[in-house]
Every structure is written in structure tokens, then in C-alpha cells.
Amino acid sequence: MNFRQKLRQTKAIKLFSSVKLAVTCLILLFILTFWGTVAQVHEGLYIAQERYFHSFFFLVLGFIPFPGGQAVMWVLFTNLSCVALVRLNYKWRNTGLIIIHFGLLLFLISGFILLRCSKEGHLTLYEGQISNLSTAYNDWELSIWEASTEGTPQKYTREITAVDTDHLKADQGVQFKQLGFLLKVKEYYRNCTAYMGGGGTGGPINASGIQRLIPVDLEKSPEKNTPGGIFSIQTPDGKNFDILFFGNETLPTSFKVGEKEYHASLRLARHQLPFPVKLIDFMMEQHPGTETPRSFKSQVAIETNGAWREKLISMNNPLRYKDYTIYQASYAIDQMGNESSTLAVVRNVGRFMPYVSTFVTFAGLVIHFLMMALNSKKKFEPPYVDPE
Q1: pTM
Q2: Do 324 and 248 form a contact (C-beta atoms < 8 A)?
């Protein structure tokens, strides 16, 4: 008995290489796809994605557990891997089936990479403005930087330490070793309302006079949620003080640790692009006799290898560079008539993997059907009879 035959007798391998398990996963994926698509109407796109597709389990009617998209996909990936290990017959006549099988495995791997590594944000520029920072749509961060007077209005840089706030919990500590203090979470809410103080002293430090946060239910659209929290700053000399952050604040909150002054802000996460983007010109065409835009596009330039490369971005005509794709998203005109363009910035690490897996699977199907056609032709070919 060889190694594959011994593995085939293992109970766990038998279970995870079962054809019934694969069929069950496919049925569950069909149910989740239908269920999640219908739920988007009432729950919104973001909440439906998080509940039905990005979760491992969710509760039906509040108490019945049901497998989510991630759990089903992991089980399906394990099933295909076990089948490749113990059930596939690696012979020449099965070349097409083998290629199809590994093409499907590559599909699942590419989906996981895109889910975990892709980043989406937006970049709003006025004509002539240059920036290399995109802003996330729904992810928040707590950013802290040392106060400094260096720089000019034309050029100003600062070193910022940022912490992802999506997974912050009460009593959790965040050590800022490079800044020399500990930040401890006292309260944190993914969506809340803020209330001003009564003018007394002794409350948490805040730039806007906010003294109290009240948690509220999460909105269906994540862009409507405003997080907030109260944190405790613990300095090396043993001093403690509370500081309050709210996502809708426009001014950073200032505090001192020793002789150094710091600014801090709870804001949508920033992602640094490996190239600056400059908006050269924004163009908009309107339907005749109306103020309804018919099309809008942006003439932009990106700096690569010391040279500026220009590109006209319009609807369905994005700019692609390395792992980044920049789309035309929206625009705005302020009271002074200044035009700004909002560009959607998407980073897809391994964005070619779905195309490769599609090609591999298609090639496997072609090879499989060609080999089946040739084998059937040989099987039913009449025997040769010598006329002599």
C-alpha cells in the first residue's frame, strides 16, 4: 500500500475528499449568493457582504447558526486539495481533468488574495493640485504626530503614526514606543453620537469641547457610521489623562507628553501611493439645455521614474499602473466655481490571477473535450478489412 492509499483510508481525508461534501458546498454557495443578493435591497450592500459572504458563520432568526461565505469557501478549498492529493488519477488520459482541478484551486487562492490584500480608496484633487494619499471609504485610523512648525504652505511633510481602529476593544493597550507613551482604550464605538460638555473641568481632553459619547446602531451604509472613543494616555513618568476622539471632528486634539506636544485625530485611513497624482484639467459635458452632466473626465499625470506621464481618465477608461487602477468617480464645484475631481483608487495585488485561473480552467476544458472526442473516434472506428 503506497502513501496515497494510506492517506485515502484516513477518516479526515475521506470526509474532506468526499464528492458529497463538494456538492453540499456548491449548494450552500448558491443559497448564499441568492440570499445575499436579495438582502442587499433591505440591508445595504456593505452589511450584506459582511454578513453573507465575508463571515464564517451568521445567525438566522437570531439563534440558528448558518455557514457564511468564507467558511464554505475554505471547506471547498480543503475538499479540492484533498481530492488532488488522494483521488485524482495522474495519468495522461486525465490531463484535462487535472488542469481543470488546479484551475479551480487557483480561482479560490486568487479570491482569497484579492479579499485580504486589495485596498480601495478615493483621491480628491483641485486643478493643479498634487497628492499621493488616497482616503479609505470605510476604514478608520487613529493618527498621532508630533507638533512641528517646519515646512511651508507649498510643501509640508510630517511623520505620522497610525493605528487601525476596526478591532479596538475596551481595556486594550496600544504601545507607541517611538513616541514614548501607552494608549489604553477605555471606550470605543464603531458608531456613536457626541455631546458637548457643560463647561466644567476634569473631563477628557478634546479639541471640540465634546465630553460624552453615546453608542448607536450601525447604519446599513458604512459611510454613515461615525466612530468615537475615549482613551487613556499613560506617560513614562506615571501620569495618566483621558482624551476623547470623534470621527466628525475637523480639528486634531493636542496634548503634551513631557516637553513634547502631539496632535491626534480619529479619521478615515490614508494609504500612501507609490507615485504622486496631479490633476491637470477637469472636463464636464452637460446634456443640452440642462445642468445634468452627460460625461466628465480628468486629465491627470503621474510621476514615474522622474518623468510625468499624462492620461485622460473617463468613465470605463481608467488609468492602470502596476497594481493600481484609478477610475473617474465623481466631481464637485465649490461656491467660487473651483472644480475638483474625485478619483477612485483601487490596489489589487495579484489582479491578474483571476484571468490566469480562468485561462487555465478553459484550457483544461478544451484539452479534456478534445481527448474525449479522439478517444470516442478510436473506439467506434470500424476495423480494417483487407479487400484481398
Answers
A1: 0.67
A2: no
